[in-house]
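Interim report to the steering committee. The following record documents the input for ParB/RepB/Spo0J family partition protein (295 residues).
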Amino acid sequence: MASKKDQNKALGRGIGALFADVDEPASEEAVVELALTDIHANPYQPRRKFDQNALKELASSIEKSGVFQPIIVRQPDAEVKKYEIIAGERRFRASKLAKQATIPAIVREVTEEQMMEVAVLENLQREDLTALEEAEAYDSLMKKLKLTQAEVSKRLGKSRPYIANYLRLLGLPTVVKTMIQKGQLSMGQARTLLSLKDKTKLAPLAKRAIKDNLTVRQLEQIVARVNGDAKKPAKKAVKKSPYIRASEEQLQEKFGTKVSISAKTSKKDEGKIEIPYLSNDDLSRILEILNINLD
């Protein structure tokens, strides 16, 4: 059985390293047959929906040939014959559909913290989560493990702006989040909608984007008009230097939101940087990136 030291080491090396240690049987680990009735899903599983057609296909294969790769489970209480799935929930669900009584499994010692990380990583590595499910998975890691965005990005091998952009989706109205969950709105469209100044227009514009099959570029142009940006010719006439534009792009990538740099015309080297935020949570996110702690 893999040692706790080895598992912790794997958690710091990104997705690939984690799976090499958690989702693949080590040569010395024993594969046992466990009753399906003794196994429960991972309580930290971020995926809420599984493709039923794919499950039926897998179930048909299991009926004919069995389960080739054992699932990985843990036993929270050594005195109770109950197990929680660490990796392999699709195989478990398909085996139930195939009316199997048992499933091959490896019992491994894994902490609550590792359990949660593996649940997120298994889905990010093996299945396509919706953008919203991915955002909720990152949010769950931060809240339950008390991690900062920087710590989550380091553990998962993702950039901090990447994590921040997904977390911003959680600030959208419920109706819009449902559209994302159903795959009706893309990540790019959702990010564009987040730049709307009047949040009451979010849902109507999201519905219009779906109805008219708008591209991200078309949606950006509409959002600019709605925000009134097109009514400011004086500002649009001011040409920014390549240095300023490059700086804006880098800051936008870092903060995961629109950033504007404007130079004063009266004094050559003076100007201002504007970073808008959507909510108190979004402000806290930006302050965290700046390493400002107000607690």
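Residues 1-21, 230-235 have pLDDT under 50 and may be disordered. The committee is asked to note this result when reviewing the revised timeline.
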